[in-house]
Here is the input.
Amino acid sequence: MSKQIIFDKIFTLPTIVVSQAYQKHIDSVHALPNKAVAAERLAEAVVAGKISIDDCIGQATVAVQSSSHDTAKVDAAAQAASRAESVALDALKQAKTSASIANAFHEQTKELDDALFIANDRIDQLKQSVDAIAKQAVVDPALVNLAVTQAVADAFKPFKQAVEDAGAQDVIGSLVAATVVASKPCIDVFGVDLKDAKGNPVIVDIWDHANAPLIDDTFIWTETILRHLIQSQRTGENVWFGGDKGTGKTMTAQQFAARTGRNFVRINFEKHTEPAHYLGDTGYDPTTGTQFQPRDFLTAFTSPSTVILLDELTNAAAGNLAPLNGLLEPRSAVNYGGSVWRRALGVLVFTADNTLGNGDDTGRYADTRCMNSSLVDRFARVVHFDFLPLEKEVEAVVNHTGCKPELARHVLKAVHVARTKVATGDVVDAPSIRCVLAFIRSLDMMSVNEAWESTIVAKQPAESHAAIEAIKQACIDPSFIANNI
Here is the structure.
């Protein structure tokens, strides 16, 4: 019997059968490379007289006692995953023909996205087939799952290697479509039992973006802020976060992304920021010629599930922010740089700023500007962020530093006095929660006076030093601190 005939006989066996035969007779240490390679190795062993064809076929009675219909489903699903791989590789091959990898991958976004969607869909079918076999057949579910998992991994190895060869891992990562994988009550996600106007539990969508930030379990959520966030999840409306430094604006956006499995992109603005810096500009490539090259905002804007934070927007000149107007409208479709840009599914846009968009009348935030009303109008709600109530701040400080609640409360009471002095003009800028954390952490190595001077006083304008020192004398007790460190 020729090697080709033997190969054909082995290759027609179910994947799980080939897998077990390979593990038993060829290599019990390493995972199955793929069905074709395994069949080839087994055929060679038969030709060499090391095993018989019956040794391979005999695995069928052990590996699978299910109906031929169930076995066919697994093989069909595996073939579908292989076809999806082929589609993805074709799209990748087209992208690699350009000398400009980033721009080429941007042009191939839809093809790659479609290919990966098909692959994910086929993998889901594989999982369903495995579940059906486990329920209906007399077969070890662990063996089936191992074979399917390995088959999927093998199918995507060439695609993964091609991406790595192109040096485009980050680009591909940003193009992978995220999807909603669950919907959970707010209390399960944020620990806050939020109800809607009819008394029903508020439901939160959970995505599966690979680049979602890490969850910070120490972050404190409030019902008021969560209502604004989840309302935007429902409607896609933009929201402006305004308030003093240290009130949690940036962390709120980041941790919302973390808890809901979304991508998070923070874009910083300053007085020299121009549209080319955050939207993109036309550039010249020797191979592809002159092409538009998108920057952070447009890349994030077209990536499903992304939370975009426009940080300190009022530092930029109003005229340089004008291109945002059209993009921030509902169901936007804006032609910019020769392409039409649409907001991807689940994209949310927030602004975090020390002002509410109408300028700073305190003098504490230099170089901020009053925004064009047409831009501010694109934000459905302007939310004022304030410091947490004392006991909530105590909880946050304890969570971050591990200090005793008594110590956190003692220091925060002094800081609350400083905040009241801002209203009277005695203190220009009250210490933030970051200053409190730095002060308490410094107490392990420094005296109270040294820690207060370096973490609290030194960050204040000179005209506030006397008032801040007076607050320390009146409110900070070194002996109390020594007994509670």
